[in-house]
Amino acid sequence: MNxxxxxxxxxxxxxxxxxxxxxxxxxxxxxDRIIGEVLMNALDNxxxxxLILYSxxxxxxxVMTKYKKAAKYNNEIFHVVTTLKVWxxxxxxxxxxxxxxxKLPYFAPSTFSVRTRDxxxxxLEASVVYEIKVALEVKGEILLQDTIPLQIFNNKTRCTxxxxxxxxxxxxxxxxxxxHYNLSLTQINCQHPNYYxxxxxxxxxxWFNNKGQIAEVYGKILYKLxxxxxxxxxxxxxxxxxxxxxSNSFFTESNNMQTNYEFDVNLYGDFGDNVSxxxxxxxxxxxxxxxxVVFNLGVTNRIDKITLPMHVNPKVSDGRVLVVPSDxxxxxxxxxxxxxxxxxxxxxxxxxxxxxxxxx
Length: 360
Hints:
Blueprint: E1 8-11, E2 18-23, E3 28-29, E4 33-42, E5 46-64, E6 70-91, E7 94-103, E8 112-117, E9 123-138, E10 141-149, E11 152-153, E12 164-171, E13 177-187, E14 198-208, E15 213-228, E16 234-244, E17 257-266, E18 278-279, E19 283-296, E20 301-310, E21 320-323, E22 336-337, E23 340-341, E24 347-349
Parallel strand pairs: 1-21, 3-11, 7-22
Antiparallel strand pairs: 2-4, 4-7, 5-6, 5-9, 8-9, 9-10, 12-13, 13-14, 14-17, 15-16, 15-19, 18-19, 19-20, 23-24
């Protein structure tokens, strides 16, 4: 398949030669095993050829300072170059299936893309990209090829985030007790939200034996980006995605008060296309929920803050849906279990003992 389209429904045309990659899922989590197939339709006999599979993950950083000084750096997460099949003399026409599998590194960061300016006016660009490519090379030239992006969630998506709870006794500067309270902030989504989704929160306040008033309740969601380029300084960007003010439900004259307030946050902005939570040697991308309560204790005010770290997964595109011809009759091939390699050429993961090597 020589089309560059990676979205929508694509019907594979058996009247044309094509090469395409099919994966089980639209996205994967670091540490998952990827299982896929390469489908090849050859209408004519070719001369000797090689069918080669490539896959890679890369972290890319680019900073352009306000003085037009550029700093670029890239870090390879893993790469794969492996031969699926060698036809030494002739490539017979026909239909072929080549199944393959490899396990993602547990440390793989999320798919990521950000482009913004910090408070100093420096242009900050960073991305984490993954892809799989297959190519049929005939006499050193690519005759057929296909490339698809990989959407990866980092392993933090497997973890749950407990609520943040604060319990404090209130008193004035003269040590007069004004009651005590419990304050909690909870993310109530059933699962970690994706970028461009909505995060849902609940702020709860239990105030007992109070002898004052709540003057104000407000909060925000803070996004913070840090880019650390080796040999250069760390560049930072922060932005408030949402800010809410007091709700009437928090204001009461009763001696004991139990109340809560739910609010939503839209997780997107003009600072990037796919700004997920990430932590690498060069990229630190974090979201934090923060709520503040201001107590009026008569002679003084008391301010208390509570924070809750969030985890935001990358958005997942719809991807493409391949419709295989109903009369597809490819000869089965053995499953190829692939070794991933680091930038230095060291193996990251080895095949399991039950893996079957492809008969070439």
